[in-house]
Amino acid sequence: MNCGLKNEDGFSLIFTMIISVILSSTILAVFLYLSVHQHLIYRKANFLKAKYCARGGLNLKIIELENENSIQDWTLSINQCIYLSPRDSCMVSTKRWGGFLHMLSKSCKKDQSYSLRSIWGIVSTEFYNPAIVVNPFSETLVISGETQIWGDVYTGLSGLRKGSLSGLAYRGNRLVFGKIIKSEKDNRPQIDRLYIKQIFHDWRKFFTLPAQKFSDFIHENCDVINPASPENANIIILSVDNEEINRRNWHLKGPAVLIAKEKLNIQCSLRIENFVQILCEKSITLSGNSILSDVILYSPDSIRIKKTGSFEGQIFSEKSIGFDQNVRIDLPSLFLVYSEFNNGYINIKPHAAVNGWFYYTSPHRAEAPGAVQANILISENSTVTGLVYCDDFTAISGTVNGIIITDRFLLEDPPSKYINWIKDGHINRDKLPKKFTLPVFMKNTNFSMLPLKFL
Length: 455
Description:
Elements: H1 2-68, E1 77-85, E2 88-97, E3 100-109, E4 112-123, E5 132-134, E6 141-144, E7 148-150, E8 153-155, E9 160-162, E10 180-182, E11 190-191, H2 193-206, E12 212-213, E13 224-225, E14 237-239, H3 242-245, E15 251-253, E16 256-260, E17 264-266, E18 271-273, E19 276-280, E20 284-286, E21 291-299, E22 302-305, E23 310-317, E24 320-323, E25 328-338, E26 345-348, E27 353-361, E28 376-378, E29 383-396, E30 399-413, E31 416-419, E32 421-423, E33 426-428, E34 437-438, E35 442-443, E36 449-454
């Protein structure tokens, strides 16, 4: 009898201990789960605080730039600590990136940080609502052939008329699918040429600076080149030649500046990204399946695009920019020729399809009839989507889905040249948004800023 009671007491004790262990393990597991979950919640909360501090600091910096009208200050390079509250702040870096602003906002909250990169321009105004804007003091605008215009047309008091060429009359039913607005006022937005001259001057200065060798950053059996490092805040300048850059299908990550003394013909399938500037003293040719993203090309000579896998960036030349047949650039990019002696041009050949902003500007304009040439040429069966801005002559027989702002048009029918004539051109303002981002070198009455992209 007593033995049975002892057995029952022992079983109860073991059972109690097992239950205690199970409960203790469960409580410990719940505590650990809650502790880990609480830690994750704190990390997420700190991450969100850092994220919204970065966004808030960026928005405050944008407002500051708009209020100070300092957007067009080409010397702008600012690292500024933005205080949002006594306990919240972030660091905002503002620098020029070609025709736009590159802004980097960084914020840290305990063990979490957030970086927000973005590219900004200025917002278009009512001056960009028409399909065509020409110099009001130029000749009468004449359309012929199968020209069609969707949108308003701003001309001088001489207005717009249809014309016959080589015995062929204008074939359209209406002159314009919009309004013809005659005015003595020059409604063309103006370019800040001083800004353009300054950024070109800054790029030319890179040719005189000491540079590291591109080959020093090449690692055997590795195609990735990443010269920038978090510890080095300075711009990495690398000297490169045509043989080195075409040796392999490099993957170059910026920020960095590539300097070339001789001609560059990029034939390999390169991948270049993250704010890389390629500056060449001679001509540049893209003829491979390269993927270029957030890249600037500059040359005082000509730049030619024969073929490319993908391009998103900016191209600047002091002589010419050419797009070969069947070239496609689907991502919005900036193309600008600044010709000191008014002999430069942008040539878009047949069946090319390009997207972005196309600028030709010069401090001098051709006055003598013998010097007349097309400074922006949009060939038959080519398509441009975006803004075409020309300080002198634009020749169009292709399609522009957007706006043309030009001094005059030019139609070449050898041996004759017709001033302010359009033949077989198609301009459709409706295929471009009412408001869009402009480069910061445009002299706007409205200095509101608009993001081009967030990275």
